[in-house]
Automatic annotation (TrEMBL):
<dbReference type="InterPro" id="IPR036942">
    <property type="entry name" value="Beta-barrel_TonB_sf"/>
</dbReference>
<protein>
    <submittedName>
        <fullName>TonB-dependent receptor</fullName>
    </submittedName>
</protein>
<keyword id="KW-0813">Transport</keyword>
<keyword id="KW-0812">Transmembrane</keyword>
<dbReference type="Pfam" id="PF00593">
    <property type="entry name" value="TonB_dep_Rec_b-barrel"/>
</dbReference>
<dbReference type="InterPro" id="IPR039426">
    <property type="entry name" value="TonB-dep_rcpt-like"/>
</dbReference>
<dbReference type="InterPro" id="IPR000531">
    <property type="entry name" value="Beta-barrel_TonB"/>
</dbReference>
<keyword id="KW-0998">Cell outer membrane</keyword>
<feature type="domain" description="TonB-dependent receptor plug">
    <location>
        <begin position="26"/>
        <end position="134"/>
    </location>
</feature>
<dbReference type="Pfam" id="PF07715">
    <property type="entry name" value="Plug"/>
</dbReference>
<keyword id="KW-0675">Receptor</keyword>
<dbReference type="InterPro" id="IPR012910">
    <property type="entry name" value="Plug_dom"/>
</dbReference>
<feature type="domain" description="TonB-dependent receptor-like beta-barrel">
    <location>
        <begin position="153"/>
        <end position="625"/>
    </location>
</feature>
<dbReference type="InterPro" id="IPR037066">
    <property type="entry name" value="Plug_dom_sf"/>
</dbReference>
<keyword id="KW-0410">Iron transport</keyword>
<keyword id="KW-0406">Ion transport</keyword>
<keyword id="KW-0408">Iron</keyword>
Length: 661
């Protein structure tokens, strides 16, 4: 069952270098949600699992929609998703330049081997988008299993999960699939979702090859914001859906093969080609004129690296490449005004190329370990406008919202650097110091989906500098701790100004403390918790859309200064556990002027899982145990408070059967 404490000396992390390595001595801030924690959490939405990670908040929208936050505010806007590198087995879920804020629903997190998180800019193996951090979902390695589970919950929620695996001397396979239907808490809402992960491992005399196919499909009837101050606590409003016509349909495929072989005694070659495809269509219900957007892309990519072990040195040198054919179309069925007319607003195609070279080394001597890395990345966009150049409105429009730039090419050159060191204090404690620089190139939507007559978006890549110091370790195999103090500055931030034009040049500042603590009282009882105390502020005088004046020094909206969670667990027999979870969300501002805020909330959840026999197991999950009124996400826009409502007390029952025991 669940380990009560994570003994960091025994913890293995894959995401930093794409190979398993001892996480204790890594001079960076990381977290890992393992398969046992994922199984017990049984998350309906990814936010429930990510509550176990300090500094991470995946703000839940309706259904499977989300807005990510990782050592950052919850970022919104056309390219805000570009601040996070979200991956499956180290491969970005979406192509560089084509991120989507909801892209975590593409990954089979429900049946992953683990979710690994790197906070702040990652190592040189990661490029554009690894700005505030990395969320990497690891596929399960083949093992002998044949398990089926079914689950039921409130509001016509049903889910089935199946896992099959086999493992031999040279071949192993793993198949994990799940299907969910959810009637939705809100009126005229709900979704159907299917996910599949297939993995085949081959071990040969020279080559080892691991091939993975990920597939996901989502058909969602989306519920929009409800409006009005604290509307989430109004019994007459909280289940209403102001946008019963809203929907989101999305599917994705990501396939890769990872081939590795030894080159002599000291070197290993790893080659990873991959294919990526996805399509999405949704009603933009959050805009009064409600257009429909269709977007998608097809990608062919490659990762290659040579790992060298040279005595006290470990050296990684590699190349990454990605070619993507992407497109976007926005159409409005009915005219809203002369400035938001019916018809095609945007229709474009972008051929994007990314190429990068990187080098990362580690040097260890006794209790000291040093590391450093350098990456160069080139990005090029070839934009082709498929509709008329210029405004999408008739000549009589006075302030046309939509502008289609003429065909053009844009390219970006970026460097990133990281350097750090860790020192072992005694046998069970490590301290580290790290500097890292990260970047993200502008996203295609920021460059080519222009508004208010802007003919060209002359944008620079965003850059972030991170300095952090950390301390982690274990006392007497009972208490473990992981503390990280960070200071980050971000420059050339892309934003939309008061004239609705996309420009670069803003600066923000981020500083705080993240902690992870765990304590085992005895063989049966444990407690663990994570938390973040941080401030995220505007650090320049900018004429930001939605603000009324100088906002330098103000908190960035949707950036709680403190939040976290804690769990008390009782392992009442060797394969059974009960866990009571406390989730705390502090107050936060809703707009740049810091005049409107959300008070925050506190929730309790209870989970009990038990193995009844060699074949049968069961899990009971009670969410929002105290039936609190709260908002999953609060916002202020178009002159009103807006909320995604949190669900009341809910009971989920899962029964599983193992055919192979």
């Amino acid at each position: 069952m669940l380990a009560a404490t994570e003994i960091y000396q025994e913890e293995i992390l894959v995401s930093a270098s794409r190979l398993p390595e001892n996480a204790a001595t890594l001079p960076l801030s990381w977290a890992r949600v393992n398969k046992d924690e994922l199984a017990l959490t049984g998350h309906v939405h990814i936010t429930e699992a990510m509550q176990r990670v300090a500094g991470a908040w995946i703000s839940r929208g309706n259904g499977q929609e989300s807005l990510p936050s990782l050592r950052s505010p919850v970022l919104t806007g056309a390219g805000s998703c570009g601040a996070f590198f979200m991956a499956a087995d180290g491969i970005s879920l979406r192509a560089p330049g084509f991120c989507n804020i909801n892209q975590l629903f593409d990954a089979n997190t429900e049946q992953a081997a683990a979710i690994e998180v790197i906070k702040g800019p990652a190592t040189s193996l990661y490029g554009s988008n690894a700005l505030h951090g990395v969320i990497n979902i690891l596929s399960a390695a083949p093992a002998v299993e044949n398990d089926l589970s079914v689950e039921a919950g409130p509001y016509d929620y049903y889910r089935a999960k199946y896992a099959y695996g086999s493992s031999g001397d040279t071949h192993g396979l793993s198949l994990r699939a799940n299907a969910t239907t959810n009637g939705g808490y809100k009126d005229d809402s709900g979704y159907d979702q299917q996910k599949l992960t297939f993995r085949h491992d081959f071990t040969g005399t020279e080559w080892d090859i691991s091939s993975v196919l990920n597939y996901s499909n989502l058909n969602q009837e989306t519920a929009g914001f409800i409006k009005g101050y604290k509307a989430y606590a109004d019994e007459d409003l909280k289940r209403q859906n102001p946008n019963p016509e809203a929907y989101r349909d999305a599917w994705s495929v990501l396939a890769h093969s990872r081939a590795s072989r030894e080159l002599g005694d000291n070197h290993q070659l790893i080659l990873t080609p991959y294919l990526r495809a996805n399509d999405m269509e949704f009603l933009m219900h959050f805009l009064p004129w409600q257009p429909v957007e269709e977007n998608g892309h097809r990608s062919l990519g490659f990762q290659g690296a040579i790992y060298s072990e040279l005595g006290q040195w470990r050296w990684i040198n590699g190349l990454d490449a990605d070619y993507t054919d992407g497109w976007l179309k926005e159409v409005q069925a009915d005219g809203f005004s002369p400035n938001q007319p019916a018809g095609v607003h945007y229709d474009y195609q972008v051929d994007a190329t990314m190429a990068a070279a990187f080098s990362q080394f580690e040097w260890a001597l006794n209790k000291l370990e040093l590391s450093a890395g350098l990456r160069y990345e080139y990005s090029r966009y070839d934009y082709d406008n498929k509709t008329g150049d210029g405004p999408a409105c008739a000549p009589e429009a006075t302030a046309c919202r939509f502008y289609r730039p003429a065909d053009r090419k844009d390219n970006f050159n970026n460097w990133s650097l990281n350097a750090g060191g860790s020192y072992t204090l005694g046998e069970n404690h490590q301290t580290y110091l790290r500097y890292a620089n990260g970047f993200r190139a502008p996203q295609a939507t920021e460059l080519y989906r222009l508004q208010a007559g802007q003919q060209v978006a002359d944008l620079d890549s965003e850059e972030l500098d991170n300095l952090e110091v950390g301390l982690r370790g274990v006392f007497s195999d009972k208490l473990n701790y992981d503390l990280s103090l960070f200071y980050m500055t971000k420059d050339d931030v892309i934003f939309q100004d008061a004239n609705r034009q996309n420009i670069s040049g803003a600066s923000t500042k981020h500083q705080g403390l993240e902690f992870n603590l765990g304590y085992r009282f005895n063989d049966n009882w444990y407690v663990n918790g994570v938390g973040s105390v941080a401030r995220h502020r505007y650090d320049s005088r900018i004429n930001l859309l939605g603000s009324s004046g100088d906002i330098k020094g103000n908190d960035i909206d949707t950036a709680p200064r403190h939040f976290g969670s804690a769990r008390l667990g009782w392992e009442f027999n060797p394969e059974s556990v009960a866990e009571l979870e406390w989730v705390y969300m502090g107050s936060y501002y809703l707009e740049p002027d810091n005049k409107h805020s959300y008070d925050g909330h506190t929730l309790m959840n209870l989970r009990v899982s038990s193995q009844f026999s060699s074949h049968w197991r069961g899990t009971l999950r009670l969410t929002n145990l105290l039936d609190e009124d709260y908002a999953e996400r609060a916002d202020f826009g178009f002159g009103d408070y807006r909320y995604f409502v949190g669900q009341p007390l809910g009971a989920y029952v899962e029964v599983g059967y193992s055919f192979g025991r």
